[in-house]
Amino acid sequence: MKRTANLWLIIAIIGFCLLPWHVVEDGFWSFSWVTNIGYVESSSALILMLVYGKFWFWPTALAFAFVATCLATVSNPVTRAKMIASSALFGLVCTAFQGLVIVRDGPRFFTDILNFTSINEGQIGFGAGAMVTLVALLFILTTGVSAMGKGRGDAFVIGLIGLIIALVGVFVFFPVAHILIRAFENKDGTYSLIHFIPRLFSSDIWGLGCFAGGTCGPAINSVILATMTGAGTTTLGLAFALIFTRTQFFAKPLLRVLTVIPIITPPFVIGLALILLFGRTGAVTQLFADMFGIEKSRWIYGFSGVYLAQMLSFTPIAFLVLIGVVEGVSPSMEEASQTLDADRWQTFRYVSLPLMRPGLANAFLLGFIESLADFGNPLILGGNTNYLSTDIFFAIVGSVADPAKAAILAISLLMLTLGAFLVQRRWVGTKSYATVTGKADSGQHAALSPAVKAACYATALPWAIFTAIVYIMIFYGSLVKLWGYDNSFTFDHYLQAFSIDFSNGIRWTGSAWDSYFTTLTIATISAPLTAIVGLSTAYLLIRQNFAGKSAFEFSTMLSFAIPGTVIGVSYVMAFNFPPIELTGTSIILIIVFVFRNMPVGVRGGIAAMSQLDKSLDEASITCGANSFTTLRRVIAPLLGPAMIAALTYSFVRAVTSVSAVIFLVSARHNMATSFIVGRVEHGEFGIAIAYSAVLILTMLTIIILLQLAVGKRQLRRTDRVEQSA
Amino acid sequence: MKKSATIGILSLAAAFASSHASADELSLVCSAEQSWCDLMASGFEAKTGIDVAMVRKSTGETLAQVRAEAGNPKIDVWWGGTGDPHLVAAEEGLTQASGADTAQLLDWAVNMHTISGGKTVGIYAGALGIAYNSEILAEKGAQPPACWKDLMNPAYAGEIQVANPNSSGTAYTELATFVQLFGEDEAFRLLKEIGKNVNSYTKSGSAPSKAAARGETGISIGFMHDMVKLASKGFPLKIVAPCEGTGYEVGAVSIIEGAKNLDAAKQWVEYALDADVQSLAQTVKSFQVPSNSNAKVAPESPDLNSIKLIDYDFATYGSSETRGRLLSRWDAEVKP
Description:
The complex is a heterodimer. By secondary structure, chain A is mainly alpha-helical. Chain A has 32 helices and 8 strands.
């Protein structure tokens, strides 16, 4: 412990004394701060404190002195640990506090008390030195806490918990608080609780009129839609997963592609395709009208259309969560059941299905939350029905901006998510679902009973065909002049977006290239970070016990449940000013993706990890490995499918998300989706669809490569299915 | 432990790489059509040598961002998009006077300049109109509408689409136009009557005309230049200037308060008001009427002189108070 703490103390002191404390104009890696050593902007905290009289760095320096003294003089390990932890905490709090209070134009609060010249000069955002110092202080704190005996004295686990809490705190709670506090704001700018409660529970939000022939509030509409979407996508996802693992269906690879395509589809495209197929003048509608004389109607605009689009969009998420879980159910259990004379149906109903509970619950939760926060589909297909996500968007950008209303609606949405989360936990309960153990088994999965198999085929295959038709239409749409009116073949849309000029070296002349490259870069950086953060969190939640675990678990879900618009605006509010100034950079995009998509990694990781028997960890620890090695060498390799799901999903979401990035994209860092949305807004469907088609192909290629790279996990089973006699 | 920390440090280290604006640069948010934005930006770069960093965002999104960034803006100049949000920004002190020369501008553009205290100025105008899909109406055997009041015709039941004024500036312009044309009580009576024929109130202002172009609805209400653009692509869309007269929007340009590149921003405003620059809009199929009296008007553009334009009172109907009152009355009386 002493060595670790010493190491972190050295790092902290380097951050404090050598690195530039504030943001450097040209970027840290330009190293201009080495040559511009004389300037305030490129000075370290030590120089600022001693030379420029920035006295608010003294507490941080003092914290180092405390830590160093304790390490050197105190011999009782527990007392030492306590003192180190409290000194580090003191340093963290003081550093964060001065950063929050003293901004660009001087003090943000307490202007009267803090009326000193050096404070009034203000300061710019945290830079390299501040980051290194804060991170190092954080780890000194966690090292101290672990040495106090918390978390079985495991420094790695405590460090990880500390890091994730800090990250979620800074990048989820801190920004979101900026906007949620507006819910308590009155019209005159004061804050109160009295007006908040009636507004939160007003019938404008929770009205039940639609059960009596009228219209419901947006919250009720959203709940009904989300419950149906969650149930529907879980059922379909399970059917697909069963076909994959338990049958010998002949076209599995094709099916696999079809189950992935919808999540790699940029928003608006599915809605648009559905309109062009099922709208009043859509292809299918025309066909049915001509053939069967069915009257053309506008049924697609409203609840049914949104539901259809969400089912198309979110089934793959359920599938990605469930495939790993269904695969992981131990054949031994099924064998045991059959040995005990159960038939296939009984085995499935009473053994396999209950073992899939964590997977089903997590798939449902994801579908439910995705549906609540979905913005594109209700916008295009919603008709006159109101949903929370669109209402929130227009409360912020509509013709009358009402951030208070947006905040209240966002809180209603969070209440729904919290409700779903609690129900989900209750349903899963505290049983053990571990089926991947160290013991060898035959690896022969029980075949499905004929009835279940028929049911799977009957639900999944028509759906697959439907998905295929939608996508064939999309590609067709990108190759005709004016989809629906002028069906002559053309490559113009592709040329306009993706032309390359070879006459004078390679020049990317198409209008889409810039945003295309930015999008791919940002997605590539954020995907592995998301997977790491998400799976580490899942590891903590499943394998470790610590105080406040439930609250911790819910807090990691928060950023996912909050609609993108709210996240986007709150990020601008929080990260446009010191201490953390990120707007206009690509970093803010990366961060927003990591923390918005992290929950999928968490859910997938939880579902997969609850199947891994704890004896595997214990065996590893008994053999002398520490928990980091166990995580890396034992657990991580068994999490292949969960890892693929997390990587794929976060990559794809980074490419396809709209509402969160609309406020965060800047001229230098534009994203593909905001390009597409801009084109759709002005009716240039051809180029929007062509761009989407290119994105779909790009992502499909990347996903296939990813699956090859991560590889298939070896469960020492030959994954085969019992031959049906 | 060390390794997890390395990851943490590495990810944070990426945060140091942020870059900032340097000299001879202009950060522009464009709220017009992408192709027009591109044309304007590259023209400005060629003319002045100033590097333009441009992003396209709708007016509502831009206003929300400008509000959130107030005090430390990342945007220098906001070009295009309907004038109401520009006026709101001026009212809230989010934009600053540009000192633009308005001598050559048409009255409605100067008007924007005057009521905002010089903080925003008109660059184009577009009139509100009705569009109908000739194929759909022929199929239904219905006569095309010529006036606002024709829209109450029961023959159009379920065929009219218009945006919701709570979310769309276009629809608010329509609401304000009705109030100015017919008086408030009569306007709401008419809107309620027309509402019986409306199949849905869309969120976005441009959605109804797109739906009409594809035949998803028979009739739409929106800005005529959007309709002209759709018709020029080959959709069977016919455009009507209502006989009672109609309102219009004025697209505007504003400099953000606290802009980092103020000189460049001022040059941009000057450039945006230039007659030759405005004449180029039609080359990218943007058919709004330019605000410079010397700029060329596209032959396809709705001719503002032949349309009965009302004397639209931007000061009154752009104010938050009138807006809030009209919208709550709309919610109470018209909303389905």
